[in-house]
Design brief:
Elements (H helix, E strand, L loop, with lengths): L13 E5 L8 H7 L4 E5 L5 H8 L4 E4 L6 H6 L5 E4 L9 H6 L3 E3 L6 H16 L2 H9 L18 E5 L3 H12 L3 E5 L5 H7 L2 E2 L2 H7 L2 E4 L13 H6 L5 E4 L8 H9 L5 E4 L18 E3 L8 H19 L19
Length: about 325
């Protein structure tokens, strides 16, 4: 099927729908889109009906977390590009967009510092038992015995699941604390690992030798529930797990059971299987830290994210190739 929006249209301005937003405002995106006289229309809710109310006749769609399904895409008859405010695009039906001739883009290069900092902060908070100590002290309980045992960080092993740009920034931060860093990543080159001073290991070995494990792999059919009951049973009982990647990589029910069985000591998650979570077996646990998918956030990163996503819209609408497409579409005709 060829999307009718690929034909040149003579319009005084462009309409850009926004399915959902976590931003205080959309001023950075609006400034970029002024180049094409872009009019932003934000959906009143992240439901299909509300999104289609603004997206059905739009030239482009900007999306954050809302699900953009095949049925919705079929009704977006003028759309040329779906640009995600984010790195992953698992909320968009890529196949349906491709069939409709719609370019799907992402922003893979905007929050490397923030996520690597957040992962390191979560790790340190787990090791030093900061959050549980803080809660006790605020409640009037001055109890050193409650945090026993805490082990020295220097000389321990941090295992990184994947070694893309975020873990490549995390590695030297961890090494500065005296951690030995290893990674499981079948795709990274030996040269990259050598320069970083990081050893390559198989997944099973990473589980076995790591005192701390930090997840940085994309969510794919192969990585969904990569951390399951079998993986947890292979970890060391004093180990900690950190996830700042995608929630479904970790089976939360299996993680809760593993914590109950003492198969690992604790976990810190910035992402969860369902967001926001209605309930979770991980709630209320002293040895679990949960943050609401905020590892990407800084004031500066939000400006980068909005600007770069909006730049993709401008490029596609004006007939230029997207910088970071996730699907391949014939080059659209430039608008007159």
């Amino acid at each position: 099927m060829t999307n009718s929006c690929l034909q040149p249209r003579f319009m005084p301005h462009s309409v850009i729908a926004v399915s959902d937003s976590v931003f205080p405002n959309l001023d950075p995106a609006r400034a970029v889109l002024s180049e094409i006289d872009g009019e932003l229309r934000l959906a009143e809710a992240s439901t299909p009906e509300a999104i289609l109310a603004v997206a059905r006749e739009a030239d482009a769609l900007l999306t954050t977390y809302a699900k953009i399904t095949a049925g919705m895409i079929a009704e977006m008859t003028r759309c040329r590009v779906i640009a995600r405010f984010g790195i992953g695009v698992d909320n968009v039906d890529i196949s349906a967009a491709t069939d409709a001739g719609i370019v799907v883009t992402r922003v893979p290069d905007y929050c490397f510092d923030e996520v690597s900092d957040h992962a390191m902060a979560l790790l340190l908070a787990l090791i030093r038992k900061i959050t549980s100590s803080n809660a006790r002290t605020h409640s009037g309980r001055w109890e050193m015995r409650a945090v026993v045992p805490i082990h020295r960080i220097r000389g321990r092993v941090l295992g990184l699941v994947a070694f893309g740009q975020i873990p490549q920034l995390l590695a030297p931060k961890a090494q500065a604390f005296g951690l030995r860093v290893v990674t499981y990543d079948p795709y990274v080159s030996d040269d990259v690992l050598e320069r970083a001073g990081v050893a390559r290991v198989e997944f099973e070995e990473l589980l076995r030798i790591s005192d701390y494990i930090s997840i940085h792999t994309p969510l794919t059919p192969e990585t969904r529930h990569l951390f399951d009951a079998q993986a947890f049973s292979a970890m060391q009982p004093h180990a900690y797990l950190i996830n700042t990647a995608r929630g479904p990589i970790v089976n939360e029910a299996a993680l809760a059971e593993a914590l109950d069985q003492g198969q690992l000591a604790g976990a810190a998650l910035d992402v969860m299987e369902q967001e926001p979570p209605a309930a979770s077996p991980l709630f209320g646990r002293e040895n679990v830290i949960l943050t609401p998918h905020t590892s990407f956030y800084s004031e500066e990163s939000l400006i980068d994210l909005q600007s770069k996503a909006a730049e993709e819209v401008v490029r596609v609408v004006t007939g230029q190739p997207a910088r970071n497409p996730v699907n391949k579409i014939p080059k659209p005709a430039a608008r007159a």
